């Protein structure tokens, strides 16, 4: 079989739309994952045994159930009880909840790594726990968690390919449609391999640069 990538030229615009939809979905899911992760991390470091138990159950469930099962539950299961959500929203919610389970471990580790002296200084200054947590503890924890959260984002990008199973025409879904029109899966999936590899590499590079910049700023503040 002769490799002929030129057959994909008429479909590049359609594939680009799928790539943009993937980027939009993952960006929203990352924000949702950080919010979920921070909330769960707060619960897991809480003095309340009930909150810690609820957070543990959430993380345990969504880290140990295949994502495709979670996705099908939200998209095909919830309508059975009267909850209808479109494919895009379902994808964002499912990725956010699943990603939040992983992000919570990252943010929790960042919270536990904070120097106790910083917390004691904040307590002595008379700050309330809410202000201390939102303005001191959480920002420091997120700063130190940039690299691991970048891994969560990369995982979201890769996992987003499963959203094609609920008829969402993100990058993988768009590629499947192109395959059905061209009958040239070899060329289509070569392009798909390259695009995903390039996308995750660029994200890794951006995360590394951001981490280096934040560490440099931190060193300048300390100096």
Blueprint of the fold:
Elements: H1 12-44, H2 49-64, H3 67-77, H4 87-112, H5 116-124, H6 129-144, H7 146-159, H8 171-182, H9 185-222
Helix pairs in contact: 1-2, 1-4, 1-7, 1-8, 2-4, 3-4, 4-6, 4-7, 7-9, 8-9
What does this protein look like?
- The protein has one domain (5-222): Orthogonal Bundle (MetI-like fold), CATH 1.10.3720.10.
- The model has no long low-confidence stretch (mean pLDDT 89).
- The chain has 223 residues and is mainly alpha-helical.
- Helix 1 packs across helix 7 (146-159).
- The longest helix is centred in the C-terminal third of the chain and has 38 residues, at 185-222.
- The chain contains nine helices and no strands.
Along the chain, the helix and strand elements come as HHHHHHHHH
What class would the helix/strand composition place it in? mainly alpha
Strand content range: under 5%
Task: Assign the CATH architecture.
Answer: Orthogonal Bundle
CATH classification, class level: Mainly Alpha
Give the overall pLDDT as a whole number: 89
Low-confidence stretches: none
Radius of gyration: 21 Å
Transmembrane segments: 20-43, 55-75, 81-103, 149-168, 188-210
Membrane topology: Multi-pass membrane protein
Pfam families: BPD_transp_1
GO cellular component, one term: ATP-binding cassette (ABC) transporter complex
């Amino acid at each position: 079989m002769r490799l002929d990538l030129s057959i994909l030229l008429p479909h590049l615009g359609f594939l680009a739309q799928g790539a943009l939809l993937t980027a939009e979905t993952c960006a929203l899911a990352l924000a949702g994952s950080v919010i979920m992760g921070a909330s769960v991390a707060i619960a897991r470091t809480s003095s309340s045994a009930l909150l810690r138990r609820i957070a543990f159950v959430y993380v345990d469930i969504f880290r140990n159930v295949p994502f495709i099962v979670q996705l099908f539950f939200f998209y095909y299961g919830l309508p059975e009880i009267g909850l209808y959500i479109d494919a895009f929203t379902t994808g964002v919610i499912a990725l956010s909840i699943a990603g939040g389970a992983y992000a919570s471990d990252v943010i929790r580790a960042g919270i536990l790594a904070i120097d106790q002296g910083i917390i004691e200084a904040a307590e002595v200054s008379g700050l309330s726990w809410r202000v201390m947590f939102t303005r001191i503890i959480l920002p420091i924890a997120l700063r130190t968690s940039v690299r691991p959260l970048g891994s969560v984002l990369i995982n979201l990008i890769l996992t987003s390919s499963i959203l094609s199973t609920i008829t969402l025409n993100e990058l993988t879904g768009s590629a499947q449609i192109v395959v059905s029109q061209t009958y040239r899966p070899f060329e289509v999936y070569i392009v798909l391999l390259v695009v995903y590899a390039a996308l995750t590499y660029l994200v890794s590079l951006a995360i590394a640069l951001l981490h280096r910049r934040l560490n440099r700023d931190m060193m300048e503040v300390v100096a």
